Amino acid sequence: MKNSLSKWLFYIFILFFSYTNAQEISSIEKIAAYGYSKRFSDSSASKKIQLQALALAKKKKNIDDEVICYSYLALTQRRLLHLREFARYADTAFILAEKTNKIRVKAFASLAQGALKSYIDDKPQALDNLLKSYELFSKIKAHDQCAKIASDISYLFSPASPEKVKKYSREALQHAAKAGDPESQLYARLAFGGYLTDQLETGFKEGWIIALNFFKETVAYSERHAHDIISKSNIGIAYINLADLYSKGPKPIDESAMLVNLEKATAIAQKYNVKIIYRSAIGLQGMYFTEKGDYTKAELLFIEGIKYQQSLPYTDNYLLATFYNCLKEVAVKRKDYEAYFAYDTLYSKYNQLKYNENTQKLLQNADARFESSKKIERIKQLELENELEQQNKLLGYGIAGVLLIGLVFMFRSYYFRQRYYLKREEILKQEQANSELKVQLMEKETIENLAARLSLERRLLRSQMDPHFIFNALGNIQSMILQKDTIPAVSYLNKFAKLTRQILEQSRKETISLEEEISTLKNYIELQQLRLNNSFEYKIVCDESVEDGILIPPLLIQPFIENAVEHGLKPKPKEEKGLLLLNFTQQPDHKNLICVIKDNGIGLAASRKLKIKENHQSLSTTITDERLAKMQKEHPFAGFQVLERESENGETGCIVIINIPIL
């Protein structure tokens, strides 16, 4: 009950995870993959889970998930050696995949078909399908699948084409490194290790050492990650290959290392019922002791293999014939002809059964190959016929539709032509009247907009060049000249002239660069510093987010600088040093430039009290607000805020945040 509940909780988790994280791999595919991962540990549960995933895909009428489920079922049947089901699932996946354009789906169908063709010894077709699957999985960067398929391709090219074996086994390693999972890593390392073993030459010790070290690393890696490797048979193959390398090495061989690896391979084979590994492990041990002359130990090993095989619920005639043949060789070497006769009798029995099985298997493979090819050809023919029939239907519907549209068009043309001529004169008169009215409205709107703009520019220019500021500036220059401070007076006059020219020029422009605006602000602030006897300092900072050469409306910031100096910094006590900070940042999403002006002046509340006493009214911020309001039609974020500065170490002051549109 607990196991069943945990399985369904796992399914629910997969479905929820897939819903919240939109990925290419669907929830149904994840369930099928989970079932496939249990093919070694619990084959019955593996098939059940995959069939449930297939039923869910059919219920949702999702062909893509159906193809992937059929592909996983086909690969599971290959593991169980059920050829009929294997062929049925693989062919179904391949046929359904023709109805979709999804790369991943077609890749799975080609993989299942390639595995089927390889199983029935149709190597050319197997290579075609696996190469197609490899290409498709590479496009979507499914590195785990690419690593396994490239390994299988390298095995199919061996031993006829060593260069291609090397090419695909190396690519398998590269994909496995990108995938990062132990299953893919071990799969690829076995393929490349097979290439290294195939390249060994007799007496060439360096190549043997390279291959041996590579397989030592492979075995160590598989032992470290044994829990995460699903295909336990690959761990056994790694042990077998390493033991085989020890047996081929320089004499004397490392007997203990070879036997330890063979024992580990035997344990894996018995635990997970992998016959080929068991046969290889027992066979290598028996042949080693036979060559060594320890016939008793060799005979015991072969008899142990026979007993284990006979204890299983099925009979493997090939394995039994192999073991009895090895016992015959041991009996000959021991010159025990009575035992030889007994072993030969049993060998003949199982060899004949093996021959019959092989013959039947070849016939089954041939039948499966023929049926698969015939089925695919028939499906293609039916699809072609359906496509032609559909095209003919569409052509007939198209011709009928064109004729119907033509008749309707002719009738409507005749009817509306009569009405058109009757109303044409009236429409023309109405259009003419409307055009005249539009022209009048446009002229009126243009004049009003131009007048408003000129009025705003005149008021802006007056606010920028405050007469009080000009009077003070000229007074300071006069005072410096009377005191014979010629150099400061000339510098002051140059700055004042430059500021006047900049304001006059910029007031007629639609846009200016941020660099020009900062230059004008610097001139203005430095004049204010000279006017107020350097009673405050200033700093202008541009954030890294601000792009070079951006364009903004001119003369938007200076009125706020003027307010900060006149109403914040100027009234401060002389013994306190004033500070004015300007910071520019950019918001790329809203195409806004944010200017933050901070001062440590007397603050908003105190400034308002002074304004009441002085009866002074500044229009600069009002005009700027009007300008920004006009920009809000195209730039809704344009505007400004004036805030009281929070007390920091007893300091007061004001903060102005201006959102300036980037034009």
Question: Mind explaining what this structure looks like?
Answer:
The protein is an alpha+beta fold. Helices cover 74% and strands 6% of the residues. The protein contains 23 helices and 7 strands. The chain has helices at 2-20, 27-37, 43-59, 63-80, 83-96, 103-119, 123-139, 143-157, 162-179, 182-198, 205-224, 232-248, 255-272, 275-292, 295-310, 317-334, 337-464, 467-482, 486-506, 514-531, 558-569, 604-614, 620-631; strands spanning 512-513, 536-542, 551-552, 578-587, 592-599, 639-644, 654-661. The strands form 2 sheets. The protein has a 5-stranded mixed sheet with strand order 2-4-5-7-6. The protein has a two-stranded antiparallel ribbon with strand order 1-3. β4 and β5 (592-599) form a beta hairpin. α12 (232-248) runs parallel beside α14. It is elongated and about 140 Å long. Residues 1-23 have low confidence and may be disordered.
Write the layout of secondary structure elements.
Layout: H1 2-20, H2 27-37, H3 43-59, H4 63-80, H5 83-96, H6 103-119, H7 123-139, H8 143-157, H9 162-179, H10 182-198, H11 205-224, H12 232-248, H13 255-272, H14 275-292, H15 295-310, H16 317-334, H17 337-464, H18 467-482, H19 486-506, E1 512-513, H20 514-531, E2 536-542, E3 551-552, H21 558-569, E4 578-587, E5 592-599, H22 604-614, H23 620-631, E6 639-644, E7 654-661
Parallel strand pairs: 2-4
Antiparallel strand pairs: 1-3, 4-5, 5-7, 6-7
